[in-house]
Amino acid sequence: MLWYTRFTEAYPKDLTELELNFSSKEACRNDLASLRWPKGFLCPACGHEESWRLAAGLFKCKVCNQKTSVISGTISEDTRKPPAS
Ligand SMILES: [Zn+2]
């Protein structure tokens, strides 16, 4: 077991920092989403509460397809497209 311990001792700092970095970024996005929508997603365009999660911090309303970023707010480039039914 000693060889294994020595081997891992050379790397845990990097691994731990990577994992901490990743989890803190995820936690940060989750916090942003819960700050923006304390009771869950709420579409800023139509007020609907259900959304698709496109990516971390990016949501799309299930009704009007308005994309909303937790960080930058609504993404207006999509508003010209008619909502898919
Ligand atoms: Zn909507």
Structure report:
- With 85 residues, this protein is an alpha+beta fold.
- The protein has one domain.
- The chain is 39% helix and 16% strand.
- The protein has 2 helices and 4 strands, in the order H-H-E-E-E-E.
- It has helices spanning 2-9, 12-36, and strands at residues 51-55, 58-61, 67-69, 73-74.
- The protein has a 4-stranded antiparallel sheet with strand order 1-2-3-4, with no helix packed on it.
- Strand 2 (58-61) and strand 3 form a beta hairpin.
- The relative contact order is 0.11.
- The model has no long low-confidence stretch (mean pLDDT 75).
- The chain binds zinc ion.
- Residues 43, 45-46, 48, 61, 63-64, 66 line the site of zinc ion.
Radius of gyration: 20 Å
Order of helices and strands: HHEEEE
Oligomer: single chain
- The count of strands amounts to 4
* Uncertain parts: none
Number of domains: 1
End-to-end C-alpha gap: 61 Å
What is the strand arrangement across the widest sheet?
1-2-3-4
Q: Average pLDDT, to the nearest integer?
A: 75
Q: What does the largest sheet look like?
A: 4 strands, antiparallel
Helix content: 25-40%
Bound molecules: zinc ion
Report the sheet-strand fraction: 15-25%
Number of helices: 2
Structural class: alpha+beta
Give the CA-based shape.
elongated
Secondary structure blueprint with pairings:
Blueprint (H helix, E strand, L loop, with lengths): L1 H8 L2 H25 L14 E5 L2 E4 L5 E3 L3 E2 L11
Antiparallel strand pairs: 1-2, 2-3, 3-4
